[in-house]
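re: that chain from earlier
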Amino acid sequence: MKPYITNKLSNGLEYILIENNNIETCSINIIVNVGSVNETSSIRGISHFLEHLLFKKSKKYKNITEEFNKLGVHGLNASTGHEKTYYYCNVNKIHIHKCLEIYSQMLFFHLFNSYEINKERNVIFEEMNKMKDDGSDYLYEFTRQLVFKSHPLGKSIIGTENTLNNISKKHLLEFYNKYYNPNNIIISIYGNFDKSKIESTIRKYYSINNKNIHYQKIKPYNINNTNFEYIVKKKNSEQVNIQIIFPCLEVIHDINYPLRLAYEILGDRNNMSSRLFNIIREKHGLVYTIRSYIGLYKSGGAIYIYAGLDKKNVMKAIRLIIDELKKIKKYGFTKQEFATTKIKNSTSKLILLQDGSEIADHYGDELMLKKTINKPIMSIKSLLDKYNSITLKEVNQAFNKYVDFDKMIIGIIG
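^ sequence. v structure.
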């Protein structure tokens, strides 16, 4: 039996419900199928700008955030990515219906106010300054552009000073009307609720007409367009940040499961026995932070290795990292590394099963992938079984396939 139910309104909005009557709360995750990949060059950052604004005024409410606060919600927030925009919170089960009503006002009935637009523009400029001060965030921005070249995945989520200044009320309204439509949205709810009442509430507040139903499909990035390149940017800071990146395939490909395991073995932030942690930090004492992770999207993917360290150790650390990558390509990961990481991976999935927000996020993302690229929904239990079935041979093959030094990008800032 599936641990969830899905349904679809006549206007195309889809939702997924995961019941747990042993708790007193509900976790909501609403995903809009829009992000930086959907933006044109003159309005870079508009998805993120819009995400900020939607917490302001709607047709019914003067201040959306205040209405949520009256319900005592926890974790109220939103985030903009390359392909999706998320709106999420945790709420007492008795307020779930009111919470969904407020979200409908936010998503479909926002009132654009010139004063609020200009005020929030300044807030985003401050966010941009903070990002520039954070070497790792800034490094991610410009190295990603080297990987994906002119493909939309290479474009900035937050935009630039010029594009933010260029975004007008008219731009925001047009973008909102184009992408904030029921057929471009999914709702994921986990927790204690009456299924029939929740479905009735969703029908009541979300059965509105689409203003636009035509969207541009983003073509997958061709990883053969990436060639070896490195870039150094000067920045006054106590520490130098380095990043090594390799392109990989989009999220739908099965090889990404063993590839994820490979990068957990290599340098997962929660794995203090990872290869890079042991060699670069424990053996040589060159860094405080070193990690690897993988970013997968509907139109592409990339593998990241990040470290922060003293400038005198930069070249030594890069050589050691590349040496380890070469050793793994030649000899593979060890049986012990593989076994330890599989146990840690299983534990992380079991922990996920106890976190309402993570469960709502997981199933929301799964439904959006099914809706947009027809990828079957995978339950958390099925995901755990999938990882448990992966062999060491598959992990080593995936690592060898995508650690291609001819496509390696190295970025240094400091």
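The mean pLDDT is 94.
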